[in-house]
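Handover notes (outgoing to incoming on-call)

Open items:
1. MFS transporter: sequence verified, structure written out, both below. Nothing else pending on this one.
2. Nothing else urgent.
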Amino acid sequence: MSGTKKSGVFFTQGWIQVAIAFVVAIVTQGFGLYSFSILKVPMTEALGAQPAEVALGFSIYALSAGFASLIVGDVINKIKLRGSMLCSAVLFSGGFLILGFMTEIWQVYAAYVVMGIGSALGGMVILSGIPNNWFNKRRGIAVAIVWSAMFPGSLIVGQLVPAAVASGNWQTAPMVLAGIAFVVLLVGAFLLKWQPQEVGLLPDGMSEEEAAAQAETAGVAKLVGLTRGEALKTSTFWFIAIAFALIGIGEQGPFQNFPTYIVGNGFDLAIAGAFMTTISLAGVFGKLASGVIIDFVGPRIAYCILNSLAVIGLILIIFVGDNIVLLFASSILFGVALSSSAVCFSSATAMYLGPKHFGAIYGIVFLGKPICDAVGVPLVAAIAGTSLGFTGAFGICACFVAASTVCMFMVRKNKKLVAMEEEAAKELQAKIATQ
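MFS transporter structure tokens:
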């Protein structure tokens, strides 16, 4: 394995891959998730439609991305990472182009179907897989850095769309986003590498001697791991998948409804906007913190720590809704945990089920999240409209977060994977001994 570096030395090639994935994530995750809420207002006005009709576009986007993620692993196996990224460039930017010319509501739905599929082919599975494949010892922080890209993506969208609306032609914004997305994804297709082994390297820049020193790193070096069929038969897989699904209701449900709650408590929309910005900023620190904690104690404990804070934050938000200082303080607790799931669950999938078939397995693990995202947002709004109000709605969400935390706490590394890693270690040690 010429070209490998000692693991104590800065692994330049790996961090370059993380940096490229970060830029791609600004587009497929930042643009994809944050543009809808801002574009929703001008789209509703332009179409003369009901807000609920336009809001359906987000559910369509989430579900399209979720179900398309199921095939990303197979797509990579058949046409390689580059092929998947090139398809993403055409489809994701194509969805924005449709919005740039749309005149009827069905075109909005069509745009978000196309965009959702494009997001999946260059999004969650790939952007989680690259740092997980390229790193072992520093896996947590590498994944966290990639997912912190959602914040700059939200800032770009937050500046571009209002500027286009103010100029009198809001459809300029999705067309500009389409152009940026196409260029970034096209370049990313030729620069990103799915696994370090493809270019004669090992995760973390390890040498074969270092990989042979312990079973886990030897397993990563040899790329061992359960197949999708094997994973589906394990409790490890199901605890991870159920925990990931539950958090879709527990976090995204209240998150998308916080502005309504805050305005309903007598504050203006500017305060609501500052509240959401505070949550987003806290989320960046939360993602990075989750990465550091994962590298010390693993994704299971990291997730339990952070999402216990989310439960506390939600409960406090219920009781301090009329106190602006305490409300913002509570938002930090909730925000720190927000989206840490993307870091923790992708790391858990690679660590506890193995990296060899990460794409195929993580596509199924991820599926429950967008489904529950699509359900959680309208569910919270519906409960808030009953006698339970937002107190009951957020309380129920806190229960979902707690249930997700319990499921993640139950996760353990699969025994079959442990045996695979030990066998890989023996083979590697034997190979080195004969050299």
